[in-house]
Amino acid sequence: MESALRTALAAVAISLTLCGAAGASGDGPVKPWYLDQYGGQPADLAAFYNGQVGIVMAQAPRPRLLAAWRMLHGLHVGPTVGAALAIPCCDRPGQLLDDIDAQKRIGVWLEAREVVSSAAPLTDKDVGTDRSGDDYTTIPNCSGDAFANAAATLRDRAARYGAGDEAVASWLVTQDAVFAACTQTGVKLPPPFAKAPSWLKADRAYQEAAFDLYDSRAAQAAARFAKISRDASSPWRSMGLYLQARALKREALAHPSPQTADAARTAVAALAAAPPGTFGQSRVEDLSNILAFHFDAESRMIELEAKLREPEPAKNIAVLFRDYSDLADTAPVRPEIADWMATMAAHPPRPTNDDDDDAKVAQRYESARADALAHSISRWRHTRDPAWLIAALSLADPGSAEALPLITAAEGTASNYPGWLTIQYHLVRLTLASAVSQVTRERLDAILGRHD
After folding, report:
1. Cβ–Cβ contacts within 10 Å for residue 113, how many?
2. Is pLDDT above 90 for 233?
3. Predicted confidence (pLDDT) at residue 35 exceeds the cutoff of 60
4. Cβ-contact 199, 168 below 8 angstroms
5. What is the Cα–Cα distance from 224 to 374, expressed in whole angstroms?
6. N or C: at which end does the chain have fewer Cβ atoms within 10 angstroms?
7. Contact between 325 and 62 (Cβ < 8 Å)
8. Contacts of 52 (CB under 8 A, 6+ apart)
9. Cα–Cα distance between 163 and 167 in angstroms, integer?
10. How far is CA 282 from CA 191, 243, 339, 397, in A?
11. What confidence tens digit (pLDDT) does each residue in 240-288 have?
12. Directed axis angle between helix 336-345 and helix 297-308, to 10°?
């Protein structure tokens, strides 16, 4: 570890001496090749999650900056939460596992269908969880649980009434149409079985509600589920409140308005107030959070910031942070943590048609850096939070008018501060060309003399 640090420090000194501030045409400043913005090898990542902040890099991914921000403020991260935060936003392993699980449950459904000899063969387009969207996207529509529940129901009905029973065959034909709506538009349910027994009528009511939900008629589905929740004879009654709330949530997201949002909130509140143990009650918090994200963004963002500041991180902090980050991106005023991360990154405004002009590209990046530097200095003076001092130091140029007071402030940083190494790095960077070489050598020796 010490030899690696010596190599890195030597590379820093050589690069700063020979190159100055690095930049590139068209793509903005480049990152030093010898520093890994994602944190390095497993041993390095483990040390970071356990409290060794190292050098806070302005261009690090946001989740890593969040972990750094927590540690700079004496808050715990740890390997479990750190590893969750380290997963990129897209192509998440958790999502891959969910997809695999859904396929397994579809397989269970296909196997269950085989108990009915009259079951029609299915093609790939007949069974799936997502509908096709624009530009080669897919839209999640049905869950893997739906297929598993249908398989259990079919096995139960076949065992009770016989796999060759006409009513069971009618149930299966209807359920196949319900699942076809998961992936296709324009699907029609078959007509009800003329000689339907009471059990099939109750099941058909549930199937019609699910069909409406999958076929983008969420409000109508919610009304059907509500009716089921009031039907004492229905075997699906216990699920009615939850499914109504979920359908109204989907309706609110598909057709956002104060009315649809209030209807969804009311349904979720009814589920929360139901007797303990009511089906789906454990999802009340998730449903409430989704509605708050879409319809009460400012309050939800403030609530999420408070959660990100808790001494012990929540187990689902990666999910909370993603919501927080998305909300902060569109907020008129960013909250503190998001503001610090955005300032550190100092991204210029969105590209313009002039981006093929190298001089204008460089000007955009320089303007963004100057604005971020001024903001970080203002925040440092106002809060005296060393994290803002680090932001200002990372944005300052050697020999600039802004650098000197920042250097003076940084010199007094306590050696036990988690951001001490970052500050030492910038002190070397900002003074290398102007300081007596012996002073720089002593500063580097002090770093290498530590055992942490």
Report:
1. 19
2. yes
3. no
4. no
5. 58
6. C
7. yes
8. 452
9. 9
10. 36, 13, 34, 53
11. 999 999 999 999 999 999 999 999 999 999 999 999 999 999 999 999 9
12. 80
Per-residue pLDDT of 136-149, as tens digits, reads 888 899 999 999 99
Cβ-contact 200, 167 below 8 angstroms:
yes
Residue 88 neighbours by CB distance under 10 Å: 10
Is 106 buried (19+), middle (13-18) or exposed (0-12) by CB count in 10 A? buried
Q: How large a percentage of the chain has pLDDT more than 90? A: 71
Question: For residue 139, which phi and psi values (nearest 5 degrees)?
Answer: -115, 115
Neighbours of 77 (CB within 10 A): 22
Question: How far out from the chain centre does Cα 99 lie?
Answer: 17
In the block, residue with structure tokens 């065959």: 169
**pTM of the predicted model, to two decimals?**
0.80
Q: Which long-range contacts (CB under 8 A, 24 or more apart) does 54-61 make?
A: 54/421, 54/422, 55/421, 55/422, 55/425, 56/344, 56/390, 56/394, 56/419, 56/422, 57/31, 58/344, 58/345, 58/346, 58/391, 58/394, 58/395, 59/31, 59/345, 61/37, 61/88
Q: Choose among 196, 200, 283, 285: nearest CA to 239.
A: 283
Query: Does residue 382 contact residue 336 with C-beta atoms inside 8 Å?
Result: no
Nearest residue to 247 via CA among 277, 267, 274:
267
Question: Can you spell out the DSSP letters for 304-362?
Answer: HHHHHTSSS--TTHHHHHHHHHHHHHH-SS--HHHHHHHHHHTPPSSP-TTTT-HHHHH
- Does the pLDDT value for residue 81 go beyond 80? yes
In the block, which residue shows the tokens 């319809």? 295
Quote the CA–CA distance of 274 and 277 in Å, as a whole number: 8
Cα 367 to Cα 28, 31, 108, 371, 444: the distances in Å are 12, 19, 58, 6, 32
Tell me which residue has tokens 């994200």: 293
